[in-house]
Amino acid sequence: xxxxxxxxxxxxxxxxxxxxxxxxxxxxxxxxxxxxxxxxxxxxxxxxxxxxxxxxxxxxxxxxxxxxxxxxxxxxxxxxxxxxxxxxxxxxxxxxxxxxxxxxxxxxxxxxxxxxxxxxxxxxxxxxxxxxxxxxxxxxxxxxxxxxxxxxxxxxxxxxxxxxxxxxxxxxxxxxxxxxxxxxxxxxxxxxxxxxxxxxxxxxxxxxxxxxxxxxxxxxxxxxxxxxxxxxxxxxxxxxxxxxxxxxxxxxxxxxxxxxxxxxxxxx
Length: 268
Fold this sequence. Notes:
Elements lengths: L1 E12 L4 E4 L9 E12 L2 E2 L3 E4 L5 E6 L4 E13 L8 H6 L13 H8 L4 H15 L1 E2 L10 H7 L1 E2 L1 H14 L4 E7 L9 E8 L2 E5 L11 E6 L2 H4 L2 E4 L3 E13 L15
Parallel strand pairs: 8-9
Antiparallel strand pairs: 1-7, 1-15, 2-6, 2-14, 3-4, 3-7, 5-6, 10-11, 10-13, 11-12
Helix pairs in contact: 2-5, 3-5, 4-5
């Protein structure tokens, strides 16, 4: 399987702003190769950046704006091979069961226990995923960037990050370690950065996409974290940023996989 992914961002930033981009394919064991190119340009001149590494193989690129920037970011990667399954250490077992910024699982304890109290393991994951798929409508533009799982539970609509936050909240409320993965998603319509859930079930990080909008087999991991606060494709600090454009691409060859959406699956 060969996966080719691209992203193009356009933005302005004031002098003194720090920009953190999370658009690069995660560095994980098992890929035969990851051929990458990253270009950051302002007014026709290259912009310096530093590369940082985080949990789950996450790669961040940081820009310290020493002048006002009119910035374009172009990233392209060709990924061959499949990633090895990831283990879970003690810290992750603790962190990924806690409430977090967009996943206040302590606020959904009652509905989670009422709906899923009799289930464990893969059956619990299946029941949570089915509930979210039945009860939440995918509506572009319906949610705000500040909305979390509780707002999604009340409004019953949202986009992939909202589906993911609610799924995470229900799972953590049932004491299952669960985390958000941002990803490139061949087959996704409309094309964009995507968000899915990984839940630690029966000794494996099993992936579930409660939107059902893209096959899990061809997902390419970007970042891994507690929720969207840890995995945003752009964060900024210290100055004004004007975001003016984005275009994301993801294709797979020789053909797009068919996903039944139900079989247990480990992200690779």
